[in-house]
């Protein structure tokens, strides 16, 4: 019997979940729940059913796990605790600083309902967090580094679009090769924000806009760009649409640590992702953790969980016996 | 209160555990148990206590976790089930084909005693296995590749030493760059054994030995070398001792998978290790899993476990709250 998964919220991430559910033999899509009028929603696959989010409680007994695909700023802090009252849920809450309070809110509701609520699932937080934990546990005398990119930062692209005279923009975060190589050398360098990443901006300016002024506003924008080496390139709307319509991302988690009686031996652990589609990859991680949430809840486990709380065996569709015989 | 760890078997791996226990603030060494006469054993740290393995049951209540550092061929199949009758144990059993039977033997004993027995811990099996599982669970439509090296293969070095006229030898397993790059390109190539790894052998021949014959015997040796491109280099004993006395190792686990309605997006997950000392790194993994074994057993969990069964949170000395706030 396959695991019935529903999607709450249908943007790029929700579409990615729709695709990922189809790739897994042991999951099937119950349906998509949206705030929009269901007849207006065009799904990736024509057979996918669409429901109004307000009706979701009618399907309480038909859904094994609900994957919540809202945004971290305003949707998830409300939706995840609310929906955990009635469903096993998985979200991709990624505002690192607010994870403890989100955890506490969600945990209270999920413990009351006896459901599992898996939060902050994806690749950072998510797979990158796992790699930070594993590497630090194994090499306590060391230092870890996380680099992001090359990839599109939606938040930084939006910040550029809010500048007067900007029609559209796309911002890439790019790790600095020299910094990556210094880390890989085992030198455990001290790296500033500016040392680690470059920000490259492709900007479409309105006709007659003052490009020098736009460039200056970008490069001096606090928090977003002021602390970085920022490259601004003005291009046409056609070029932006043709060359920069994808949503690639990725990055690196690297830990360098020492062992031995005199810390004389150096070890480097490196994990990297190179992703053509950030939302589709994140969605694929969500579906693997939806499988885990379902199985853990069947065993009577409830409450809020993160990737740290999930034994890897729950993520694989294969049996423990098969995994031990063929993957270990 | 720190976790009291004992070591059974004192070769390179046992010495690595002795060092790793010292690096972790929450673990302390109870002692080393050996088949040798304790007074003949020179420990890494002078304060480490050495006991006879035959006396180990006298210390049953003083040891939280016993790390068994014997060999997979003959020691661990006997020692791990036997010691699991009285101790939480961790081993690095690495004969992949025999893991299911080792698991069954150990599980029976550990369930009877109510102890945890963590088997096949290290980096392969171990951290590499974890990465194979995570990557496959996230990208089911894909293929994974494991490469080993550059590093010393003890088994292959030993095989060369058994040839007539060979005084000493050291064999390095080296991944083939072209194969690594083909995998990283996302092409999911079919790779033969010969395509993936080169075997480079540094050999010290006896005076007057027939080097051409030795080289031929190495290159045609079934299982060990015949299926590989093998390079043989004759060097002096002095050169071998000077340039090849380390025990480095490492490798790569790479999975390339597709997502999207038409599998149009490609993702690459790559995990790599570059290790100055294979036994010290393996020992560091063993100690992290000893921490997990201790904590899981305190919660009433017993039986045989592998890295797949251990939620990451058990591995870190940090509290779940601290991990969520600062690492996630």
Question: How far is the first residue's CA from the last residue's CA of chain A?
Answer: 26 Å
Average pLDDT figure of chain A: 97
In DSSP terms (H or I, runs of 4 or more residues), the helix count of chain A works out at 11
From N to C, what is the helix and strand string of chain A? Answer: EHEEEHEHEHEEHEHHEHEHEEHEH
Poorly predicted ranges of chain A: none
Greatest contact pair? A-B, 68 and 68 residues
Oligomerization state: homodimer
Reported for the largest beta sheet of chain A, the result is:
7 strands, parallel
Strand content of chain A: 25-35%
Beta-strand segment tally of chain A: 14
Q: Please state the CA-atom Rg of chain A, rounded to the nearest Å.
A: 22 Å
């Amino acid at each position: 019997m396959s695991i019935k998964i529903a999607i709450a919220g249908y943007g790029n991430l929700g579409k990615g979940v729709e695709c990922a559910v189809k790739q897994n033999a042991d999951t099937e899509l119950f349906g998509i729940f949206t705030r929009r009028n269901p007849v207006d929603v065009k799904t990736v696959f024509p057979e996918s059913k669409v429901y109004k989010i307000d009706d979701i409680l009618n399907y309480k007994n038909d859904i094994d796990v609900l994957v919540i695909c809202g945004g971290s700023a305003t949707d998830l802090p409300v939706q995840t605790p609310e929906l955990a009252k009635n469903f096993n849920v998985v979200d991709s809450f990624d505002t690192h600083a607010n994870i403890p309070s989100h955890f506490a809110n969600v945990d209270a509701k999920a413990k009351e309902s006896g459901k599992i609520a898996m939060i902050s699932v994806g690749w950072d937080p998510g797979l990158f967090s796992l790699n930070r934990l594993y590497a630090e546990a194994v090499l306590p005398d060391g230092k870890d580094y996380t680099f992001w990119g090359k990839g599109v930062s939606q938040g930084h692209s939006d910040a550029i679009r809010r500048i007067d005279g900007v029609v559209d923009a796309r911002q890439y975060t790019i790790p600095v090769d020299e910094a990556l190589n210094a880390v890989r050398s085992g030198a455990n360098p001290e790296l500033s924000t500016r040392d680690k990443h470059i920000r490259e901006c492709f900007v479409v300016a309105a006709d007659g806009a003052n490009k020098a002024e736009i460039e200056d506003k970008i490069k001096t924008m606090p928090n977003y760009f002021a602390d970085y080496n920022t490259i601004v390139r003005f291009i046409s709307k056609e070029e932006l649409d043709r060359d920069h319509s994808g949503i690639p991302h990725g990055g690196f988690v690297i830990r360098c640590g020492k062992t031995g009686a005199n810390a004389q031996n150096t070890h480097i652990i490196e994990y990297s992702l190179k992703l053509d589609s950030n939302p589709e990859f994140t969605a694929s991680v969500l579906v693997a953790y939806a499988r885990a949430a379902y199985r853990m809840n069947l065993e009577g486990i409830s409450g809020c969980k993160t990737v740290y709380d999930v034994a890897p065996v729950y993520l694989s569709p294969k049996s423990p016996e098969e995994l031990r015989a063929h993957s270990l």
